[in-house]
Task: structure prediction
Amino acid sequence: MMTQKTQYFSMLMLVCGVACSASAAYKETIDPNEAKTNPDFAVQGEYVGEYVGEYVGEAPHCDAGKLKAGAQVIAQGDGNFRIVVYEGGLPGEESMRWDHRFFCYQGEGKRNGDVTTLKVRSKEVELSGKIVAGKMTINQVPGGPTLLRLARIQRKSPTLGASPPEGAVVLFDGGNADCFHLEHGGQLTKYKTFIGGATTKSKFNSYTLHLEFCLSYMPNAPAGGWRSNSGVYLHDCYEIQVLDSFGLEANKIECGALYDVKKADVNVSLPPLVWQTYDIDYTAPKYNATGKKTVNGRLTVRHNGVVIHKDVELPHKTRGRKDEAPGPGAIHFQGHGCHVQYRNIWLVPDE
Result:
């Protein structure tokens, strides 16, 4: 049996280099219209609703009144799904006092035609349910009274489409890639986006950075670095992970992590092919006259409008790019063999 440490190391190696070189074996879709031809695409996603029957499970973490619930349905390919149900709503919602105790039920789904049957459980409690036409119901026993009723939604980042303010440096607005060196698979697309594998020609010190990214739909690929892998390197040496981590618990190598340094405070990843945002306040490290680092860099990261790192220190570089060094640094968008799309990238230098 693999120890937890061995499992983590194995996952780390996958994300570092093996994963997307092997991901070519799995179909990768970047066009939503093409994805819609797969009937599983209409089932995967996020659902919100409430308990309508007697509560089953541990004591709810909620205020007086009806208990809100959220669910994430993750496509696993060939009509199979993984299901996570949360007490109180979806991860990152302001009304939710988030921690992992809010995990309520987890289970599986299987689609047959227009109906996806569900089996979910919490400790010793096993429930049944179904999804039909974007509506999810979960029952205490097969054919018994309804416990949960939810509907499929699509959340949108509050900073999606944010316009650059006066004084901003626009790095990419969909027109051309003149601000970048394209490398390692980096390329423009017909959708006025570019695929990761690009480094800015200009270098910067401290700044506020806005960027938008879209993860590919890869339902048959396993989680853990195989699905739509990229990353954003600040100062060309500190990586914020970009990865399809929808429906997973946060760790140091999932989406939003300061790679192998700190996990996101909460995983607020949206489903693949939904545009997401990072808004980053970055303070560059300081060096003395001899080139010795005297103060570590720091950053705050908002993922889809939710703070996932607040004024966090950057103790060392991330493997795979440049060493820490004085002076301004480039911003690198990692090409990892996957087709992660980026758009609407601009920054405001900290004068």
